[in-house]
Specification:
Helix content: 55-70%
Distance between the termini: 58 Å
Strand content: under 5%
Number of strands: 7
Structural class: mainly alpha
Shape: globular
Largest sheet: 3 strands, parallel
Radius of gyration: 36 Å
Number of helices: 47
């Protein structure tokens, strides 16, 4: 058992031994200190401890030890003979074994371990690994290891300790903060409790809890730091300026050449060193230990700190670690060097989408340093534009342009001061004219000025050389966005395809996924499902050769493919793709994927008949929506309005219409086309409910106008949906030939691309139209496939089973899990929904079953036989 001071080694061993039943084993305990490095004394204590718990085993060995110069190996041989004769299990604990450094004692323990009988167990506990053949014992399976990682308190254990044993009653948030700061170090939690005594604002204390707390400082200095040799103390203090430690870096900072050996020794000694990789090349200090070391370094050797940071910065720069080089340069307040490093890092920052880091650095750099560096000025503009903070950006661009007027190197008056321009990255400087035009195009797009966007983007393309793949890609992407927002889909697709190709040539592979999302969305609007799925698949195929972590955007590809699968009627395949997207984790997703994933899952639930679950997910999607430069052509509130219509909640859907100030007489545009089609659905629903001929006529007029606009724009996806709604409208007014004519046109456009849900989601009215169309021999094979999809949906529709209000499929899923021991958060994890969603479903279940608690719900469900599978109903 090897761990630093204060990790509860002795406490755990004591509890483990006391937990054994009577007669299971005998236990001897030997607490060691420095004086026990005398072999005669050590072995006397060792044998005496065993003799007391084994009815005299070791008595002969003890007699031999009392001779003038006891032969240790002979004594151990006698002891081993006695131990072999012991019938029951015996455990001998050597506590604080790290104090033993006498080589002959260590050799004796190693000899003993080689010949120990199976019923005798040796437990060695200490702050450092013992000098014993651990690797050999490990390979034989004769070694059990318990280390700091095993002893650390989890958040739940910390809560039990603080709130249960210590009786502090901290909220979960404060417990989590304390556990994080202490990294599960038990002694630190105890010291934190001491520090809280007598304080009124405990939350504020916890928020600022660090290694400057007097109890922490005293403990670590007295128990750890002062016990180390002077050279080790000096190494610890000097390297405390580093967030990460590796041998060569430590050598550069300390001026020595034994950093790798030092780190290995510190790890063996459990000096609060945390390995960061399996190869034991990189480490870090425990947070609180690092805090104490840094405070002591400032107190005792404060004048050395800037030089230590300078050495670290130089090492990181030489080893291609720009961000760490910058951080240490800023720590030394060497702003000119830091500015050079930041300027050279700008391309990598753009590539990795780390504009927030750049803004943080530029806040630290003095204005007079940034002001004379046009490349840094434009880098800041890029960071501001990407994060949507565009106030004052145009003025910054004009300031940069003033540097471009005279020849490079000439002095210039900026803000009333004469100074000289500084450039660290000549290539980025040469690109400034086109870069400025790109950012002006982005600003115009943000203002909704699409003609200005096109003008500036085209100017950037004229300025950019052919081999400037990144600059040209940026301009093409902005052109694509402008065309897309205007509904010019072919032009948008061409521009975005060129953007994607340029990014690929520039090596910005992850950024191509954002282009793939745009290209696929455009193809979907054009009604080209086959091209959309190919776009996603080709993007993933291009990334398949990438080595390393999951590329950002990979998850988004799976969400996009899921949407196509759903439209084609493969709900299981669509769900699998969403689950795969989730497995890829946050590292594999763009910021917008948080809401896109929920929209995609909501659409699947809607197709399965679980409109309540769909609405819950859409509400989450609306809350998580992150706007970007992509035109928001399918807004989440409009999707919610469609589900409300499907649920019969017409008043709420009409509320959305009023909120969006929509009317059938509005001027039409591509950006609001989805909302106006949704408005047509609301009008059709109102006409069916109120028998209102005026609402029906409004819907028909609106659909006619929408159809002409969509056809003119080549937006076949919208055309198919509008034709479907026209067919339903004509069916409502009894014009069956007209309804079938619209349906025929919709089917002709939809069949080659494999559309299913655009018909199947319309329910029974569409079913009757499809049956009539089959009689007219209209694409009979395709229509039967559509009717089969509708039948499958009906077979998995909400369950009635004697209930006045049916349970949805998702409510049944929750109900089945209520039978288990899972709590609310556990059910949420299984179903991959939020806890609030589970609570909403649970309250619906209680209301529909007429109960008010979990046990009653399960009992009532069993009586109604609601746990049978859909196929058994």
């Amino acid at each position: 058992m090897s761990a630093p001071a204060g990790f509860g080694k002795t406490t755990l061993l004591t509890e483990w031994l006391s937990a054994a039943g009577a007669g299971e084993r005998s236990a001897a305990w030997l607490s060691l200190d420095k004086r026990d490095n005398d072999p005669a004394l050590f072995w006397t204590y060792f044998v005496t401890a065993l003799e007391r718990v084994t009815n005299g085993a070791g008595a002969a060995a003890l007699s031999l030890l009392q001779s003038a110069q006891p032969p240790i190996e002979a004594m151990l041989a006698i002891l081993l003979n006695d131990l072999h004769a012991i019938p029951n299990d015996v455990v001998l604990v050597l506590d604080d074994y790290h104090v033993i450094d006498a080589r002959d004692i260590q050799d004796g323990i190693a000899f003993l371990l080689e010949h120990l009988p199976p019923q005798v167990h040796l437990v060695i506990a200490g702050r450092a690994d013992p000098v014993l053949p651990l690797a050999r014992l490990r390979a034989r399976g004769e070694l059990v290891e318990i280390r700091a990682a095993d002893l650390r308190f989890t958040t739940d254990e910390a809560a039990d300790y603080l709130n249960g044993i210590m009786g502090i009653a901290l909220p979960a948030r404060d417990v989590s903060v304390l556990e994080g700061r202490t990294e599960g170090w038990i002694a630190a939690l105890q010291l934190a409790v001491l520090s809280m005594q007598g304080r009124e604002d405990i939350a504020a204390f916890i928020a600022g809890f660090a290694g400057n707390d007097r109890y922490i400082v005293d403990y670590l200095v007295e128990e750890v730091l002062q016990r180390q040799p002077e050279d080790v103390q000096h190494f610890l203090l000097q390297t405390s300026v580093l967030d990460r430690l590796t041998g060569p870096l430590c050598d550069a900072v300390t001026g020595q050449d034994n950093g790798k050996l030092r780190l290995a020794a510190l790890e063996r000694a459990n000096l609060f060193l945390v390995p960061l990789d399996d190869r034991r090349e990189w480490y870090r200090y425990h947070q609180l230990f690092a805090d104490v070391l840094q405070a002591r370094l400032l107190d005792e050797h404060g004048d050395e700190v800037p030089d230590l940071h300078r050495r670290a910065s130089a090492w990181y720069e030489q080893n291609g670690e720009a961000f760490d080089a910058i951080r240490h340069a800023l720590a030394t307040k060497d702003f000119e060097r830091a500015a050079d490093l930041v300027e050279l890092a700008v391309p990598a920052i753009r590539r990795n989408r780390q504009e927030a880091v750049l803004r943080a650095w530029l806040k630290v750099l003095p204005d007079d340093v940034v002001r004379v560096r046009p490349v840094l000025g434009v880098g800041l503009v890029g960071a501001l534009v990407v994060t949507g903070d565009v106030e004052g950006v145009e003025a910054r661009l004009r300031d940069v342009e003033r540097w471009l007027e005279p020849p490079t190197g000439m002095s210039k008056a900026i803000h009333g001061r004469s100074t000289e321009m500084v450039v660290a990255d000549d290539e980025e400087f040469r690109r400034l004219p086109e870069t400025i035009e790109v950012y002006r195009a982005a600003l115009a797009l943000g203002r909704g000025d699409r003609s200005g966007t096109v003008s500036h983007a085209q100017r950037a393309l004229d300025l950019a050389p052919e081999d400037d793949h990144l600059g040209r890609a940026a301009a093409c992407g902005l052109l694509g966005l402008a065309y897309w927002g205007d509904g010019e889909l072919d032009a948008a697709h061409r521009a975005y395809a060129e953007c994607m190709a340029g990014l690929h040539r520039a090596g910005h592979l992850a950024d191509t996924f954002g282009c793939a999302v745009a290209l696929a969305d455009i193809r979907l609007a054009q009604g080209r499902l086959n091209d959309a799925i190919s776009t996603y698949e080709q993007a993933l195929e291009r990334a398949s050769g990438h080595r390393g972590s999951v590329l950002r955007g990979t998850a988004d590809m799976h969400v996009g493919m899921s949407g196509v699968c759903r439209e084609r009627g493969d709900l299981q395949g669509a769900t699998r793709l969403l689950l795969r997207s989730q497995e890829l984790g946050p590292v594999g997703e763009l910021p917008q994927n948080l809401y896109r994933w929920r929209v995609a899952m909501a659409r699947i639930l809607e197709a399965e008949g679980d409109t309540a679950g769909a609405l819950d997910l859409l509400a989450e999607a609306e809350r998580l929506y992150v706007g970007d430069y992509f035109p928001n052509v399918r807004p989440v509130p409009a999707l919610k309005a469609r589900v409300l219509v499907a649920q019969g909640r017409l008043d709420e859907a009409l509320g959305w219409v009023r909120e969006r100030a929509l009317s059938a007489e509005d001027d039409l545009s591509y950006l609001r086309e989805f909302e106006h089609i949704t408005l047509a659905r609301v009008l059709l629903a109102r006409s069916a409910k109120d028998r209102s001929g005026s609402s029906l006529q409004e819907a028909i007029r609106l659909l006619g106008r929408l159809l002409r606009a969509a056809e003119d724009g080549g937006r076949t996806g919208s055309v198919i949906e509008i034709l479907v709604l026209q067919a339903l409208a004509d069916q409502t007014r009894g014009e069956i030939p007209a309804a079938l004519a619209s349906l025929h046109r919709a089917v002709a456009l939809a069949e080659p691309e494999g559309y299913v849900r655009i018909f199947a989601d319309e329910g029974a009215p569409m079913g009757s139209l499809l049956r009539a169309a089959v009689k007219q021999r209209m694409a009979p094979g395709y229509l039967r496939r559509l009717m089969a999809a509708m039948n499958n949906t009906e077979n998995t529709a909400p369950v009635r089973r004697g209930l006045i209000t049916p349970l949805s499929e998702r409510e049944l899923d929750v109900l089945r899990l209520l039978v288990t021991d899972l709590d609310g958060p556990g059910i949420a994890r299984v179903l991959m929904v939020s806890l609030n969603t589970v609570r909403t479903h649970t309250s619906h279940i209680y209301a529909k079953l007429g109960v008010n608690n979990r046990r009653a719900a399960v009992r009532q469900a069993q009586e109604l036989d609601l746990f049978s599978r859909p196929s058994e109903r």
